[in-house]
């Protein structure tokens, strides 16, 4: 295996999938679960920064980051070194039952993510869904209330509790019931699809009306609601950015009724939006934050962070054998250093370039209905025409496929949106290249 010139990406040498990729894919498909959603035949050999090399030596620009996970890029040398160093000392001991420094040090750091005079505490998990489960359980346990309000379009994961909160696609829930009871879903403000957008800005706040007028008066008393469970920006649901004051208004409603505010920052957190937490853009300090994806640059880790007075469950009430694994914690500590040194700033700057580039394409190509996002969490909504704003899922899928064949890795989200979530190390040149590829495809 020769040295790879990562600078040359994208470079398609063999029409993908080439023979080596086909070998892996055919063997994989005989033995892995058919529930996996592989949208194009990419079999990965290795990765570096924002570039992926497939099994046949093709180089792709990775604007997926392994679904918004590899914040520091693929195999960042400092992350590799942190993993190496820690794995020589201790790989597992279970932070639920014993003490070790990487977990303590990471908890210390995460406990300062949220402002406020009160001390915060951290519970570690292995994944986003488990972080959501932990927050769900903590909200019920602490409040002694049962009901949770979540959102249509939300994605919170696929374990039974998380799935009960998920309201994104019916295939994700179909035939898995009965799910956890006492969950209601309400509309998330999707400004682009809202016909009541008042001229001159502002918002109709259908969501708040729905909660106050329908939910509170017709189905569930606010005193029975433990939490509002909300993504700052909807991810899987379509990279939907709510109006800037939405979270403040929803938070005020929550506080009026003693309801906890839980931010699922599994996808938006850890610098992705150009701030450490996306909720910082909205000026809200949540009661509980769920983290995973970007936290450890690809090592499995999740966490919830809550004020000490909320994380008041007794020993034995919740735990995890693998959560807070020392190698994952070491990778997370180094990830946070890199985020603070340069990558959050890079995400903010490159995000502006990406949105500007896509908006320029929008002026040329009428099938781009909307371009939206924050930092490097950017969505481009594909429509049949701008007048009707009718979604065009097949066209969106064609764009994702064509980009793959030209060496640009993208994924869809929502009904008809292309999502852009490159590693936070992505450069201006790589963004310009991606925009150029899209221009060719759309042309
Ligand atoms: N919450 C959000 C906002 C997510 O985007 C995801 C995954 O896409 C999850 C939870 C579930 O995370 P995981 O797949 O690690 O269980």
Give a summary of the structure in a few sentences.
By secondary structure, this protein is of the alpha/beta class. The protein has twelve helices and 15 strands.
Q: How many individual domains? A: 2
State the CATH class of the largest domain. Answer: Alpha Beta
**Number of DSSP E strands:** 15
Which structural class should the secondary elements be placed in?
A: alpha/beta
> Treating each run of at least 4 consecutive H or I residues as one helix, how many helices?
12
Largest sheet entry = 7 strands, mixed
* Small molecules held by this entry: pyridoxal-5'-phosphate
| Fourth-level CATH superfamily of the largest domain | Type I PLP-dependent aspartate aminotransferase-like (Major domain)
Distance between the termini: 37 Å
CATH topology of the largest domain: Aspartate Aminotransferase, domain 2
User: Strand-and-helix sequence, N→C?
Assistant: HEEEHHHEHEHEHEHEHEEHEEHEEEH
Proportion of β residues?
15-25%
Query: Tell me, what's the shape?
Result: globular
């Amino acid at each position: 295996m020769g040295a790879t010139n990562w600078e040359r990406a994208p470079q398609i040498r063999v029409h993908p999938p080439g023979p080596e990729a086909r070998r892996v894919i055919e063997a994989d498909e005989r033995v892995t679960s058919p529930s996996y959603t592989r949208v194009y035949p990419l079999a990965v050999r290795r990765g570096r920064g924002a570039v992926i090399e497939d099994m046949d030596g093709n180089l792709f620009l990775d604007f997926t980051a392994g679904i918004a996970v590899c914040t520091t890029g693929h195999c960042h040398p400092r992350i590799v070194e942190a993993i190496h160093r820690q794995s020589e000392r201790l790989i597992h001991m279970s932070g639920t039952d014993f003490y070790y420094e990487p977990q303590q040090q990471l908890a210390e750091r995460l406990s300062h993510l949220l402002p406020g005079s009160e001390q915060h505490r951290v519970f570690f998990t292995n994944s986003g869904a488990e972080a959501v489960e932990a927050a769900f359980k903590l909200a019920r346990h602490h409040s002694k209330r049962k009901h949770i309000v979540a959102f249509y379009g939300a994605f919170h994961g696929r374990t039974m509790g998380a799935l009960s909160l998920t309201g994104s696609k019916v295939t994700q829930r179909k035939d898995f019931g009965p799910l956890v009871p006492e969950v209601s879903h309400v509309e998330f403000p999707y400004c682009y699809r809202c016909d009541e957008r008042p001229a001159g800005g502002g918002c109709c706040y259908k969501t708040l009306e729905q909660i106050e007028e329908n939910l509170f008066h017709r189905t569930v008393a606010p005193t029975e609601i433990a939490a509002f469970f909300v993504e700052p920006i909807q991810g899987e649901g379509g990279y939907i950015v709510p109006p800037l004051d939405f979270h403040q208004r929803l938070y005020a409603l929550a506080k009026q009724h003693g309801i906890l505010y839980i931010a699922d920052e599994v996808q938006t957190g850890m610098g992705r939006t150009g701030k450490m937490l996306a909720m910082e853009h909205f000026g809200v300090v949540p009661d509980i934050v769920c983290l995973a994806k970007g936290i450890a640059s690809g090592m499995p880790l999740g966490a919830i962070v809550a004020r000490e007075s909320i994380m008041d469950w007794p020993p034995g009430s919740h735990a995890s054998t693998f959560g807070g694994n020392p190698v994952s914690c070491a990778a997370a500590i180094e990830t946070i250093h890199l985020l603070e040194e340069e990558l959050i700033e890079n995400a903010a700057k490159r995000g502006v370039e990406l949105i500007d580039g896509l908006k320029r394409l929008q002026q040329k190509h009428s099938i781009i209905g909307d371009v939206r996002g924050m930092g490097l969490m950017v969505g481009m909504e594909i429509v049949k025409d701008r007048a009707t704003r009718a979604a065009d899922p097949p066209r969106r899928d064609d764009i994702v496929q064509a980009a793959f064949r030209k060496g640009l890795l993208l994924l869809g989200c929502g009904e008809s949106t292309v999502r852009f979530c490159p590693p936070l190390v992505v450069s201006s040149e790589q963004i310009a290249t991606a925009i150029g590829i899209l221009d060719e495809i759309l042309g």
